[in-house]
Known about the structure:
There is one protein chain. This protein is mostly helical. It is built from 21 helices and five strands. The protein has a five-stranded mixed sheet with strand order 2-1-3-5-4. The N and C termini lie far apart (139 Å).
Amino acid sequence: MRPDLGWIFQNRIAMPLGIAVAVYLLVFHRLADRGLWSSHEARAGLNAAWYLNNPGWGPSRLPDGGFELQKPPMSYWLIAMSAWSMGMPYPDSLAIRLPTALAALACAGCLVGLGAARGHVSRGVIAALMLLTMLHFTWLARIARTDMLLALSLTAGCSCMMQISLFSGWRRLGWASALMLATAFGCLTKGPLAPVLLVSVAMAIALVDRSGGIGGMAQRFVWPMASIVLGALICLPWFLLADIRTDGRFLEEFFWLHTWGRGLGGTRLREHPWWLYLVQGPFEALPWSPLLLAAAVWLLRYPPSNVDSEDKARRTDATIGMAWLVGIVAVLSMARFKRMDYLLPAFPAVAWVVACWWEDRQRSLTAVLKQRFNWALAGAVALMVAGWTVRLEWFVHQADAWRDLRPMAVQLDHQLPADRVPVFFQLEQHELAYWLKRPIHTCIEWQDLAQVVDSDGACWVVTQRQRLHEGWFVDPRFQWTLLLDRTASDTTAYEGRSDLVVVTLERRRPPTSMVMAPCPPTPPSSP
């Protein structure tokens, strides 16, 4: 006879303990045990190190002396605070990734809090577990990217929107203030994208929730809209200060290239079709994305006539969650430049809608089927946790030995004289600069590199191997002396990593023409 293990789901000790172990293995296990593979992580570490040495509003500077013009400072502030709280003079891998991991946990916490606020804590817990076990969400929880911080801003903001329409007076003002702070957090993380996405969600929620007629719809939109605008205005002084301190370059680089250009195209970034997220997004949200289709069918199906108030409220919550999802995906799909990391703020909405559908199925099942549903959920979560543990223990550990640039940075630091500044030529290698922990000089054009060589006599250059071959055609007087060659010890083809070389560069002087002076006439010898 099969033992009845249903007590696990009612036990107040076993269930929280199991969830805590799963969260640790998914988010925090071996969080700092690999190199900074992503260029975003190393760049974030470099900026956070600047803030540790130069406390203030910023904007920060990179090791080559240039301003950080790609992102607002919130992620760098959080990393610097994380390193400072652990007593680190220089942020390590744990300090760099810890804010992102905590933001992922906070996203799940927002869903739990939203479920509790709606009177269904179990729904919030199920949504949180589904969110933390989505493929792409779990991986990005372990990478220091600003997309997870933006996801936290959107999750908290959309949760506040769902609560604003339920209250009046001071309680509504409290939820509106929380939405304002979430908007400000998103603005200082990703710029104007945060309020744009929040406004889109607010419009979608106002359209699907038609109770109270046109006046009710307008009232439900006005409060969120006012909070979002105030949250964006709070951050405006920092952007103006950054633009003044960079002589107008921050506005040009961040707003026009990295924000406006990514949205409408016309820049050097690649453009993608509008349907990319619709096709690839379900694969990134596995294993729960197939259930989203079942939830959509459930919402589109006409509700039975004998539906009670609790079932009606559940359908309303799921409908608002679907509006949350559609509002984010619609805006992101209109952008020309796309990548799956940008879709991360939509994943909490998927988890919320599926959790509402799951809860509805639970009410219509018998006790035996309900127990099987619970075990199916626990089994799926356990399989995802086991899969990620195996991946972290085996595959990620092996890949780190191939991709980590720390050994190369140590060798370069030993060979480089203390008074010399290495030149990164036609190379944006933030990880190597992070581990090197010294100022660098960046050159893009060959004539700039020639000027550095002529002024210093010789320089230490970090570049890609193919640049050495190009140098013979650009200037035959270049003399390269190979010091380090990553290609010789790395057989894996990681672009920008496996072909790195360190050389000393000199330039031969052109031969000078020698003018021979005529010899004076020899006087005749006397007899």
